[in-house]
Description:
Elements: H1 3-16, H2 34-40, E1 44-45, E2 51-52, H3 54-57, H4 61-76, E3 79-85, E4 88-91, H5 96-102, H6 111-125, E5 127-134, E6 140-146, E7 151-156, E8 159-164, E9 171-174, E10 178-182, H7 195-198, H8 200-218, E11 225-228, H9 234-254, E12 266-269, H10 279-293, H11 309-339, E13 347-351, H12 361-373, H13 379-385
Antiparallel strand pairs: 1-2, 3-4, 3-13, 5-6, 5-10, 7-8, 8-9, 11-12
Helix pairs in contact: 4-6, 8-10
Amino acid sequence: MGILDRIKRGFTASAAVPERRNSLENPSVSLYDAGAWDQIFGAWHSVSGVEVTVEKAMGVPAVWAAVNFISSTVASLPLDLYSRDGESRIADTSAQLYGILHDAVNEETSSFQWRKRLMMSVLLKGRSFTFIERNLAGRITNLWLLDPTKMVVERKSGKIRYRYRDGGPEKVYDASEIIDIIWAPGFDGLTHFDPIERLKNAVGLSIAMEEYASKFFQNGGVPPLQLVGPMASPAAVERASSDMSDAVAAGNKKGRLVLAMPLAHELKQIGFDPAKGQMTEARRFQLEELARIFQLPPTFLQDLTHGTFSNTEQQDLHFVKHTLTQWLECIEQELNLKLFSARNRRQYVEFNVDGLLRGDFKTRMEGYGQAIQNGINTPNEVRAMENWPKKGAEADKLYVQGATVPLGTQPAPAAPSQPGDAPEEDDNDQTA
Length: 432
């Protein structure tokens, strides 16, 4: 059934039963609800009157920078597969799943591309779905990212299932077949909150300021004007308005600084120029607002207004601890839940964030020195952190400072010699 047929059917039903103004998708929503219509056509309108879509949101530089920065950071981190060996763990680089997660999730998509697209879908649409392809033996062979707009999540017989349709017949997947990453889950455990739709006013204001600035400079820096003068009819008003608009455009094109006015007519400014409207300050505030949405310090959106050398470094740590960690933990737990059976507690996947927490060379060397001297790391472990080759078997041992001993175990001082004590004989002393 096409959209027009569904619209006609909805209006017919509402006309037959006026008290039940059914929407096209949800009987509990009125057809007069603008939000219901916006969802049909994939757009939302903010209070600024601007249509907000994912494509338009990505046209805002701050949104583009935030989405690209977070997604690229998650995609660039090493994603390793580990196996537990007693109390220690080893990187299981020989497993087929290691190659899928670390190198290429399928024959068309690298691991970097998969994780970047996954995070972009989550940040812009609130959710991402990845189908886990297994062979007859139950081993994972490929991972395929799905379009979240074509997925329906429902609960049937007490279990969650996923219905997906992409041009062909509908496919139904169990929960164990789908890697489901959600930014803000709904209260029913099935739906989710769409970030662009929920925050359309903040995004729409940024889009509106972008459009106004573009039109302002496109118009040669001339704000909206009012033409005052003797105009006898509506047709004369329309002609005068068109003539003045053409004159302003022609003057801008030819670089004229003087605009000729008809006799007894006057131009009055009715709009604000960007300086009086504090557009620069407003756009900077919107950048901070969008940074707040994505939980990013403004310095990562190239806003160094309040940035210094010291606080920028602290914001770097803030990003790893409070923004990136939650995303990595969410992805790790979902992967460990869906990629391994309940009986497989030996293997797990984990991101490596050591590279993001590295300090400068001097700080790292001082920290490594303390770790070796206090028996925390072996020299070879430290060399591995810097991607340096190992050195001999002695470098695999733990070392401690020789003078560092537990309290109460210091050797007792030697008793002072008493007068009359015979001196110790020296074996090398020879008398004539």
